[in-house]
Amino acid sequence: MLDRKFFAQMLREVSPAEAMPHSVINHHVNGMDYLCLHRSDKLTVKLYLVEKPTNPHSGYLVHPHSHRYAFGSIVLCGSLEHIRFKRSKDGDLWREHYYNPDRKTLTPMDWVALEERAEHHATGSSYWVEPEEIHTLRMQSLTTLIGLVQFGDAKRESELFLPAGQPMNRSEERRPTWEETYALIQRCRALIGV
């Protein structure tokens, strides 16, 4: 299921009206748009289009974090580094926060040491992330398109890790218009040759 043909077919079938309610312009970071191709409690299919992000966090696309759900991703265009973190005495210090997406609140917890391990992923390469894993991305291309299949929530909150003295930067996140959703669908189709 995690291949170019699957996402190409989803892009052929989705309409702007279907995609618009759950899609986001500047999702988490300015320059990263999220196109929702299908959404349910048990399964969500989406694309992330990253083009020249303007507010990278600590050298990463977003701060290290976990998710409430398991998901698989495939690089459909471009390349990236997928960075996994493990708790370690020898790692860099980060302040752990619990994030409640329903209330959009952060609850500060303890300082933890995290050690990173980077995996390079080029077009066609895929990876899997469990809910308890801590990860982030580093972009290696000016334009990167990532396909993602997300499963149902396995926990109520996720974790976000912030470095000392750095607040969580907010992007100019918003819902796209019908016209922006149409343009985003067309841009994604062009990038994977649909």
UniProtKB/TrEMBL annotation:
This is Uncharacterized protein. It comes from Ralstonia pickettii (Burkholderia pickettii).
